[in-house]
């Protein structure tokens, strides 16, 4: 597996609309999409920064992972995501290297992507997402 770029940096926020004032209004960055992932209890917004993006993550469910993250840590960086060509092969390679994927199969991500997260205990404390496809 080889990654050719950082796909995005995920930031947990209480309100996407409030935080867009920084990225869209102050920094004049382009918002490339906003969507709800109801099965994950999330609303996400992508902001283009050069060849990468910032992903703003807002909880729309009390039981979502982002809701728990915000309760325990507050707003801030949640994860870093790397683009890969084949996320299923990336899962197999991660396991062979002793890393701990949070799922054994790719999951549906925003914008029709396929994703898997690697447990931060196996990646030096950083929740790492591997992303196949484009937003």
Task: Describe the secondary-structure layout.
Blueprint: E1 6-13, H1 16-26, E2 30-37, E3 42-49, E4 52-59, H2 65-73, E5 76-83, H3 87-96, E6 107-108, E7 114-118, E8 128-132
Parallel strand pairs: 1-4, 5-8
Antiparallel strand pairs: 1-5, 2-3, 3-4, 6-7, 7-8
Essential attributes:
2,3-Dihydroxybiphenyl 1,2-Dioxygenase, domain 1; 135 residues; globular; single chain; alpha+beta; 3 helices
Write a concise synopsis of the structure shown.
By secondary structure, the chain is an alpha+beta fold. The chain has helices spanning 16-26, 65-73, 87-96; strands spanning 6-13, 30-37, 42-49, 52-59, 76-83, 107-108, 114-118, 128-132.
Helix percent band: 10-25%
> At the first level of CATH, what is the class?
Alpha Beta
Q: What order do the SSEs take from the amino end to the carboxyl end, as H and E? A: EHEEEHEHEEE
Domains, number: 1
CATH level-3 fold name: 2,3-Dihydroxybiphenyl 1,2-Dioxygenase, domain 1
Count of alpha and pi helical runs: 3
Strand content: 35-45%
Spatial separation of the terminal alpha carbons? 20 Å
Detailed description of the structure:
The longest helix is centred in the first third of the chain and has 11 residues. The mean pLDDT is 95. The protein has a single domain, classed as Roll (2,3-Dihydroxybiphenyl 1,2-Dioxygenase, domain 1), CATH 3.10.180. Strand 2 and strand 3 form a beta hairpin. 22% of the residues lie in helices and 39% in strands. The protein is α+β, with helices and mostly antiparallel strands and 135 residues long. An 8-stranded mixed sheet has the order 2-3-4-1-5-8-7-6. The protein starts with 5 loop residues before the first strand and ends with a strand.
């Amino acid at each position: 597996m080889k990654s050719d770029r950082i796909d995005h940096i995920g930031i947990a926020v209480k309100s996407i609309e409030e935080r867009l004032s920084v990225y869209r209004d102050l920094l004049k960055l382009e918002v490339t999409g906003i969507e709800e992932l109801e099965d994950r209890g999330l609303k996400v917004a992508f902001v283009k920064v050069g060849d990468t993006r910032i992903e703003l993550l807002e909880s729309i469910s009390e039981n979502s992972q982002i809701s728990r993250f915000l309760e325990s840590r507050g707003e801030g960086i949640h994860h870093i995501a790397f683009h890969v060509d084949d996320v299923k092969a990336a899962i197999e390679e991660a396991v062979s290297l002793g890393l701990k994927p949070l799922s054994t199969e790719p999951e549906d991500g925003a914008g029709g992507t396929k994703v898997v997260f690697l447990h931060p205990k196996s990646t030096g404390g950083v929740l790492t997402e591997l992303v196949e496809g484009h937003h």
